[in-house]
Design a protein that fits this description.
The termini are far apart. It is built from two helices and seven strands, in the order H-H-E-E-E-E-E-E-E. It is about 30% helix and about 10% strand.
């Protein structure tokens, strides 16, 4: 008997709480929910930077896909990216000096450049700005945001 009363009170209280969570206007009509945007950036300059970052991310993703498609087509894993223009060189090509091009392993991501700031990149692990002034393009760099026990590495674009 007591459990029936307890369950009845529990059901009535939950029935009273649920409608109180829905906002109503002064006429008793529910207020429609507005969709909120995920971006909280209101400064026009910040919005412009975010747009440039997104363009760079899309270009980098397209370049990676193109490189992977070429690697899959050749059946080898020996090609590398050839700089900012996105050109691809084959590892079997050598110059007259006998030097081989640098290889880019697939397990090391490439950082994205910060628009308008030479020598600064966004870390691919936490999207924080990292100073890489004076470091050559394609160099493997340890992310300074992580302790030595869990160092993460990326390539300079």
């Amino acid at each position: 008997m007591n459990t029936k009363i307890l369950y009845s009170l529990l059901a009535l209280s939950s029935a009273a709480i649920v409608p109180s969570c829905i906002p109503y206007d002064e006429n008793g009509h529910p207020i429609p929910q507005k969709k909120t945007t995920t971006s909280s950036v209101t400064d026009p300059k910040q919005q412009e930077l975010e747009a440039k970052r997104e363009v760079l991310r899309k270009k980098e993703l397209a370049r990676k896909r193109e490189l992977e498609a070429k690697n899959d087509g050749q059946g080898t894993d020996d090609s590398t990216s050839g700089g900012e223009d996105g050109g691809v060189t084959d590892r079997t090509d050598t110059t007259d000096t006998g030097t081989k091009p640098k290889t880019t392993p697939k397990n090391h991501p490439v950082a994205a450049a910060v628009p308008g700031k030479e020598g600064f990149v966004f870390s691919p692990f936490n999207n924080k700005v990292v100073d890489v002034r004076g470091i050559a393009s394609g160099t493997l760099v340890a992310d300074p945001q992580y302790p030595a026990s869990e160092k993460k590495h990326f390539r300079v674009p």
